[in-house]
Amino acid sequence: MKNNTIYQTLQDKENPDEVETNGPYPCNWGNSWLGDGYYFWDTFIENAHWWGETHCQDCYMICEALVDLDATNCFDLVGNTNHLKDFGDSIEFMQKQGLISENTTVSRVLEFMKENKLFLNFSAIRAYGINSKGKWYDPNYRLVFEIGKNFQYLPYKPEIQLCIIRFENLNFRDFKIVYPDYYNPDYAV
Hints:
The protein is an alpha+beta fold. Helices cover 23% and strands 25% of the residues. A seven-stranded mixed beta sheet has the order 4-5-8-2-1-3-9, sandwiched between helices. The longest helix has 16 residues, at 81-96. It is globular, with a radius of gyration of 18 Å.
């Protein structure tokens, strides 16, 4: 996926020059879903706005960047069935070793894979957290397959997250603020 557009949502601290000079910024949450790294929303800026509205109390900025992702540099749990199989095989191995409990998270399995050299040389992880916006959230970006069956739908702007572990091999570029408009008047969201 060359020229893949990604978005990082940040608290607006009225420091656009610092952000564009020093960004992007790593996630500092203790419960980051995909482990330590730099978190972005993949492709759909609407998800970056949702994060800003709900997690930054509507006081946020969105930065846009481009990356080149492929099967060698991104562990893709969205569109690569081989990577999904490797992830599932790791879970099965961990279960046999007694390393899985009801408290095991995606992040823990990914960390196990990294510790055991099962992660190869991936620089990023891509995942779609089902109901990551909340079980009852209706983003208006869904279309049902059959009338009357509202729980079977196609999400056409899914909440795909990209966690960049390291920037090598990704051709990360063009990091800039695109929202709010007054930080970048040449860009209209």
